[in-house]
Amino acid sequence: MPGIELCRNVAVPGSMLIIGTSGLIGSCLYEALKGDHQVTGTFFSCPQKGLIKLDMTERNQVRQLMEELVPGVVFIPAAMPNVEACEENPGLCYQVNVEGVGYVLEAAAGVGAKIVYFSTDYVFDGAAGPYGEDEPPNPISVYGRAKYAVERRVQQSRSPWLIIRTTVVYGPEQQGKNFVLGLIRRVKQGAVVKVPRDQVGTPTYAPNLCRVVKELVELGEEGIYHVAGPDLLDRYQFALEAAQIFDLDQNLIVPVTTAELGQKAPRPLAAGLKVDKVRARVTTPLTGVREGLREMKRALQQ
Ligand SMILES: NC(=O)c1ccc[n+]([C@@H]2O[C@H](COP(=O)([O-])OP(=O)(O)OC[C@H]3O[C@@H](n4cnc5c(N)ncnc54)[C@H](OP(=O)(O)O)[C@@H]3O)[C@@H](O)[C@H]2O)c1
């Protein structure tokens, strides 16, 4: 009966699905949302209690999950976000970051769910950051081009959509991959860590990012929002701030240029994101670098 078919596909307000809950941003989102919303999360290769396994490059798996849950909002932090790995394997990068996410967009539109897609300041070329929402993207890496390709697909979706661009995200994380956790681990092992002094950005504390995103979603916002920390600094300065808060030996942190690092993927150097638009919309204050690092230290000690 047409009536029954219609009911089945009505998105339930408040029911939320996070694709990629086992990652840094996904896990913080889950924490931010779970008290007030009914949330389901997925993992891909790192099983975690309570999460459902999903490979978003498998179109049928994605469609089945979406039709089973019929969420009102689908958050998509899931990605292959390793910029070097994307440059080395553009085929896999495209399969995960563009095709896989494309299946999620298609299935979300099929059940009328709102899409919240996580993107990056790597959609810009880094010639003149920090960037506002209205400035034209011009990605310079395989990863950046994949993220921008998806942004354009999201904007053509039949579903309501919100694109969150963020950058240099740090915080407590089970998989320990982010810049600050990597720095702490390596310096504590006595390794010399070379850090670029010419990559400028706006580091973003993950739990703060997710509280802001929650507020935007609850306000029913759509469109593109830049959500990042308020402080503009280069990666070496950021590493020194982290060293101070986490009592690391600063002598082991060595400033270099990006060219000296010999990385495969070109990096946007003058990057970072302007946050005037989000500040004007939400009441949650944006967390600065020192405050974020201190909060992270407290969270890791618990
Ligand atoms: N971290 C940053 O500094 C930063 C900056 C700007 C933008 N972003 C964007 O923010 C998003 C989240 O970043 P993040 O740092 O949270 O990444 P992350 O920690 O690497 O998490 C990625 C998530 O995607 C999942 N995933 C990977 N392949 C998948 C697949 N084939 N099917 C389904 N799920 C899959 C992972 O699952 P498993 O771990 O279980 O394999 C994980 O849950 C990304 O889109 C990234 O582009 C991040």
TrEMBL record:
Pathway: Carbohydrate biosynthesis; dTDP-L-rhamnose biosynthesis. Its EC number is 1.1.1.133. The keyword NADP applies. InterPro entries: dTDP_dehydrorham_reduct, NAD(P)-bd_dom_sf, RmlD-like-bd. It comes from the Bacteria. GO terms for biological process: dTDP-rhamnose biosynthetic process. Gene3D superfamilies: NAD(P)-binding Rossmann-like Domain. Keywords: NADP, Oxidoreductase. Pfam families: RmlD_sub_bind (PF04321). One of its GO terms (molecular function) is dTDP-4-dehydrorhamnose reductase activity. The keyword NADP applies. Coiled coil: none annotated. Residues 16-299 form the RmlD-like substrate binding domain. Belongs to the dTDP-4-dehydrorhamnose reductase family. Catalyzes the reduction of dTDP-6-deoxy-L-lyxo-4-hexulose to yield dTDP-L-rhamnose. This is dTDP-4-dehydrorhamnose reductase. It comes from Desulfoscipio geothermicus DSM 3669. The lineage of its organism: Bacteria, Bacillati, Bacillota, Clostridia, Eubacteriales.
